Amino acid sequence: MAASVLPFVRGIDCSNYDFTNGNFPRTIGDMVGLRWLKLDQTGLTEAPEELGKLQKLEHLSLKRNKIDKVYGEVTTLPCLRSLNLRYNSLRSSSLPQDIFQVEELTTLDLSHNNLRQVPDGLERAKSLLVLNLSHNNIEAIPSQLFVQLTDLLFLDLSHNRLETLPPQTRRLVNLQTLILNGNPMANYQMRQLPSLTALRSLQVRDTQRNVLNIPSSLEALLDVGEVDLSQNGLSRIPDGLFVLPTLRRLNMSNNVMTELHSAIDLWSKLETVNLSRNQLRSLPESICLLSCLRRLYVDSNNLESEGLPAELGRLPALEVFSASDNKLETIPDTFLKCVSLKKLILINNRLRYLPKGIQYLPKLELIETRGNPDFKAPPKPNPHALANAYYNIDFSLQHQLRLASAAGTVALPTPQESGTLSKQSSLDAGSNTSLDKDNVRKRGRRGRHQQEEADQDQAKILKGLKDVAKDKNHKSIDELKAESLKPRKWVESLEKPTLDYSEFFEEDVGQIPGLTIWEIENFLPCQVDESVHGKFYEADCYIVLKTFIDESGSLSWKISFWIGEKATLDKKACAAIHAVNLRNFLGAQCRTIREEQGDESPEFISMIDGDLVYLEGCRTASGFYTVDEIELPARLYRIHASGPSIHLEPVAVHADELDPRHVFLLDAGRKMFIWTGIKSKNTLRSKTRLLAEKINKEERKGTADIIVCAQGKETEDWWEVLSSESDETYRPSVIREHVTEEFVPFAAKLYRVGLGMGYLELPQVELTTRGKLEHKLLETNGVYLIDCLGEVFIWIGKQSTRLVRAAALKLAHELTALITRPTFAVVTKISEGTEPMIFKTKFSGWNDVIAVDFTRTADSVRKTGADLGKWASEQQTKVDISALFTPRQPPMSAVEAQQLSDDWNEDLEAMEAFVLENKKFVRLPEEDMGHFYSGDCYVFLCRYWIPATDVEPDAKNEDDDPQDDFQCVVYFWQGRDASDMGWLTFTFSLQKKFESLFGSKLEVVRTRQQQENLKFLSHFHRKFVIHRGKRKPVKGEDWTAPTEFFQIRSSGSTLCTRCIQIQADSSLLNSCFCYILKVPFDKEDRSGIVYVWVGTRADPEEARITEEIAREMYDGERFSLQVLNEGEEPDNFFWVGLGERKPYDTQADFLDYARLFRCSNERGYFAVSEKCSDFCQDDLADEDNMLLDNGDQVFLWLGSRSSEVEVKLTYKAVQVYMQHLRVQQPQRPRQLFLTLKFKETKRFTKCFHGWSTWKLPV
């Protein structure tokens, strides 16, 4: 074995081992580098002599042992800082005075011992900061103690026999916590208390306090936050406490107070008050002024309903109100406003009713009303009612509102409010605060320069893909098979598989210039050490990465994979695959180059500096299965019941270990024997059989034979395997009962291996549930040791580092030798994802042998220990429709929009425009700036000024002035009718050129028609014109100049103003908008007339902009311009140009109500999200379903490729939305309509600016 790692161990936790009868491990003395050591609850009776060798030990814990004396072993530790000896059998004479002369000792815990006096010499420990002498029999504190220990921060003298403290206590000016609970101090006046100016916590519970022996002048205690005066017989709160300005927690329980002083409101920061078990009849009105109060306990008093202040429920921060064992008949109605309330405990009162609707408080988790015989509980909605459940989802309005409220989306209304609140009152009163915050946050996002340039739709798609990937990482194989019912096109199956490249490559790969090489082992790349770079085995394959800095100063890479001439097929394939994976992981643009042994390119030779050496054979194993049969050593396990599961206790492979009361499992690899004693239980036999079948199926690929042997009917093979370690087959004449009834399995201990700069640590992981191991404790980036006495497992997480793995292997062997173990103990290495069943049985609930049988009754299943609630919660389908309950985003004011536009345009230094013509990008003429065509693609290069960062005057040199910087953003705009070839042309032409010019200062934003971000729109000053067709259309012989009809409209903000060409149809007119109509006089478009039509309700500013656009768009010499107000239309050209005069809308109220919701299961679960107020026709995705609310109707738009499950869940969601609207906006009833693609009505299309006909699928 390699050199021992014990000298490098810095800390180890040996708690809960049995070190009685001289079993303390001698190897502890070899850990000369130990800094901390835990030996809690190990049965020690004295400090082991090996501790004297640990000269660097700083923290020693020996609690919960049977130590009655401490000698020189501890006193010789010069670096000792903390010593914990609580729960032992120490006496005052058990501690030598030398121990207190250690200069570094700052923490000493001697609580729960048999001390009758303060140990002699304790005053010499002048460095002590924490001293705990509680739960002893100390009768007096020597005055000299506090003369020397003036640096104390924490002092616990509770539960002793102290009657007073020495006058020198006033010298403890640094003391922050003083605990004197449970001492007979009736005559102690606490005169030193005002001198403890740093005090923060004072606990004098059960010390015979009264109003006379508590100082009245405590003004100097400015930092006291906690006071405990419970169990003292006080008739009122001492006056001296009212001057404590920072008090946060007050415990006055178990006293005899009959009233509470009205000055309680002086404690403005009070958070917790315990007034239980007094004689209070009422609470003062001033308690309602405690705005920070979170927990109020008034149990076991004489409170009646009239004694509770009417405004008590208006405490904004109140989370817990406990008033059990009183005389309450109800509580004030103001509790309905207590939005933070989580627990309401009213056990054993005279309750008759509670305020109606209190059960719907958004954060309420618990209402306890037991012991109130006349109380009628408020009705609760049945979350599993068949009428509302769908796909095991509760679509009831109250349940969905509760979920939305828990997510912080909307506040729940009370039933009284539900029937009367209008839209304004219900939204503003219910969630006024959150709405204001949302508005500020939303507008703040619009004002942030750097983030507005991001493509919002791409960000949402990426987020959805990440969420799906995260969800899939936590799913089992069975769940993934039945993951989605959504049909997939054949082209979708050609997408790249979702891979977590971090499983193959470390995060810092390719970030530092140099050479990195991996070898292929068992299908995976394993990084090789730099010392063997260039030394390639003929039967192996390698991946070579060269990282360097290119001419632009950016990181660049070259990737090759080398194939040995004798390499196996799996290594060759995996080298090519993982080379591509490495390129994807880095985001590299280079190709992966194949290099073969003996035919390497000069570039490859230069990559490895010409040092290429061929070695015979192979260093790594093939990943294919081989015909070599793995020899598994025989292991014998005794089966014990462990709740609903079983425990496997490893024993020696010998016939003498058999016991007729037990079942045994003998695992011999290709054969698995189950031996059943004549007195063993049938349930254990069945569970053992199931375990064996599971091992055979999951680990042996079904190749093992399972043989059941009953006692007295054993086969020859059974006895041969059981005697494999001896020369002759051994059969005992009598199998005796030798396992004691009191047998308790060894409590498994979980260690996490810690590795630092030159040291190792082995702390125990704290177990959460009943001291049992749980699967969730194992983190993928860690390495763990699981000590089961007869078995030691090394569990290696997928993302753990190589150094920690190597250290764990060494530590496992050291840990095995640390304590006395049976001769059959083994060390097993396990990788994450390959855990065997024997290992899983050590953990609670990890792939239990017997799942819950739901054909049985719930009571009978519950008796087995199965968690029905956990199973039920796992079966619930996840949904998120909280967006349906959020308030509509209010429009941005014109002033704010103008301010944003001015700021963004002020930062814009230059903007160049290009348009795609004849498969290449050319400069866009200046006169065409701001005019876009739906069949073209455009590129805008914008240069933004970035001001220099301010530097502190004293940190800035006189000659070193801060320099301004710039950033270049390229906006790629694609029309609705343009193909994706424009984007491909851009990425391989202009984008490459821009990247070479601007490097890291360049950002590319791809945007589609009517999905532009606000910053881009602001550069056109509300003159953003979108034409139909192409900029230079092909004009054939039959070409005739068309009539052009434009609508000017803004959605949500004046920044979103667009002038879009629409179909020339008079029915599309609306009195609330402005339009431009061009009527040509000849088919060559040489002359004509242009009308600017202004509706009677149109915005005057939009009318002015419309006229300006028309004058700039058309040549005044060829086209005459005429501005028409609604009702002034001429009968000749205007109505002729629009076909004929038709009825049109005169109202546009839908702009104040229009909302578009997307319903999709893209994230792996059904979710509803809201599109921004500036939505467009292209937001209607074929793969999803959409909800459109225009204030009068709600449309359910079904995507042509949405799944049946999405359609059904969308229908249930829209029903909930309609029900919610009837409560929130009763004055505007909605009707529900179903619509399909290609069949949208005008009531639907009018909500979309620039609606055009759908493109037919190819």
TrEMBL record:
<feature type="compositionally biased region" description="Polar residues">
    <location>
        <begin position="415"/>
        <end position="434"/>
    </location>
</feature>
<keyword id="KW-0433">Leucine-rich repeat</keyword>
<feature type="domain" description="Gelsolin-like">
    <location>
        <begin position="528"/>
        <end position="605"/>
    </location>
</feature>
<dbReference type="Pfam" id="PF13855">
    <property type="entry name" value="LRR_8"/>
</dbReference>
<protein>
    <recommendedName>
        <fullName>Gelsolin-like domain-containing protein</fullName>
    </recommendedName>
</protein>
<keyword id="KW-0677">Repeat</keyword>
<feature type="domain" description="Gelsolin-like">
    <location>
        <begin position="768"/>
        <end position="839"/>
    </location>
</feature>
<dbReference type="InterPro" id="IPR001611">
    <property type="entry name" value="Leu-rich_rpt"/>
</dbReference>
<feature type="region of interest" description="Disordered">
    <location>
        <begin position="414"/>
        <end position="457"/>
    </location>
</feature>
<dbReference type="InterPro" id="IPR003591">
    <property type="entry name" value="Leu-rich_rpt_typical-subtyp"/>
</dbReference>
<feature type="domain" description="Gelsolin-like">
    <location>
        <begin position="1170"/>
        <end position="1217"/>
    </location>
</feature>
<dbReference type="InterPro" id="IPR029006">
    <property type="entry name" value="ADF-H/Gelsolin-like_dom_sf"/>
</dbReference>
<dbReference type="InterPro" id="IPR007122">
    <property type="entry name" value="Villin/Gelsolin"/>
</dbReference>
<dbReference type="InterPro" id="IPR007123">
    <property type="entry name" value="Gelsolin-like_dom"/>
</dbReference>
<dbReference type="Pfam" id="PF00626">
    <property type="entry name" value="Gelsolin"/>
</dbReference>
<feature type="domain" description="Gelsolin-like">
    <location>
        <begin position="649"/>
        <end position="716"/>
    </location>
</feature>
<dbReference type="InterPro" id="IPR032675">
    <property type="entry name" value="LRR_dom_sf"/>
</dbReference>
